[in-house]
Amino acid sequence: MKLFTSIYDVSDIHQLVSDAISLKKSPFANEQLGKHKTLGLIFLNPSLRTRLSTQKAALNLGLQVMVMNLDKEGWAVETQDGIIMNGTTVEHIREAAGVMGQYCDIIGFRSFPSLLNREEDYSEEIFNKFVKFCGVPVVSLESATRHPLQSLADLITIEELKKTEKPKVVLTWAPHVKPLPQAVANSFAEWMNKADYDFVITHPEGYDLAPEFVGKARVTNNQDEALAGADFVYVKNWSSYTDYGKMLINDDSWMMTNEKLKLTNNAGVMHCLPVRRGLELSHEILDGPNSLVLNQANNRVWAAQAVLKSILESICLP
Ligand code: SN0
């Protein structure tokens, strides 16, 4: 693998999950693979899990790691082509990415959507420019439309804990106080469809995800109906795709609670984190036995390590 930006960059997701589970059992089995190679982790937005889990995964593989919060520590970056830079932006992504490619063998890059212009966000213009101009393999640390390392960790978590071949997995919208990207929900849907589970998406009216991400999933605006018999419930807020970037309603009754858990098959409850307690998910769920949020966070390490290992192998053995 030379690029990890979506499920389309992975030839066999089950092989990648099984690699990740092997790495979880023997984290240091490949500690020579990254020797004398450098991973750069470049953030245009905040991070806790992605930053630490990817750094840990890299260290397990013997990589050197450099981290930069480009939005706070770097020069203001221009992304538009052909403009006269007589304003506030100081250097162009063409040079900035190109320079980083001089110092790194692999780069992880995070860039959230503006949530202002759907065409621009969904074209992944900034992410694609970064990939093009840095000239080295790139791992998405969450782009405008996807968060594939999270989705891989989520798939690992379900594969480890599922009790049936095709579990019922429900992605449910949750309330929030501000408009969030659709990236985590999009990506989760993409990976669940590929895993061929019994996959249902539920959200209030107006929160439909882009059709290319919904794929063959069943969609309902009736949360109770969706939750019936679920083995896994993935809780996540996202802003509207159709009325782009807007918060349409904020119906508190969509919060996942123990009462709603009774409708499920004693489901494991998942969230990518960070989570707003008492708003997206109840305290009782997060503190109770059904919460899988720390299992997911743990699996972020093995997801990142499996991806970095695959990229290192393609660099080392072309
Ligand atoms: C991000 C998102 O895409 O939803 C990152 C998730 C991994 N989440 C947030 O920005 C949460 C911000 C908040 O204020 O709760």
List keywords for this structure.
12 strands, binds N-(3-carboxypropanoyl)-L-norvaline, alpha/beta, 2 domains, Rossmann fold, five-stranded parallel beta sheet, 318 residues
Written overview of the protein:
There is one protein chain. The chain has two domains: 3-146 and 300-316, 3-Layer(aba) Sandwich (Rossmann fold); 150-297, Rossmann fold (3-Layer(aba) Sandwich), CATH 3.40.50. The relative contact order is 0.17. The chain has helices at 13-25, 49-60, 70-73, 93-103, 118-122, 125-134, 148-161, 183-195, 211-214, 223-227, 258-261, 283-286, 293-316; strands spanning 3-4, 38-43, 64-69, 77-78, 91-92, 106-110, 138-140, 168-173, 198-202, 218-220, 232-236, 268-270. It is α/β, with parallel strands linked by helices and 318 residues long. It has 13 helices and twelve strands. It is 39% helix and 15% strand. Strands 1-7-6-2-3 form a five-stranded parallel beta sheet, sandwiched between helices. A five-stranded parallel beta sheet has the order 10-9-8-11-12. Helix 2 packs across helix 13 (293-316). The site of N-(3-carboxypropanoyl)-L-norvaline (SN0) has 9 residues, from helix 8. N-(3-carboxypropanoyl)-L-norvaline (SN0) binds next to helix 8.
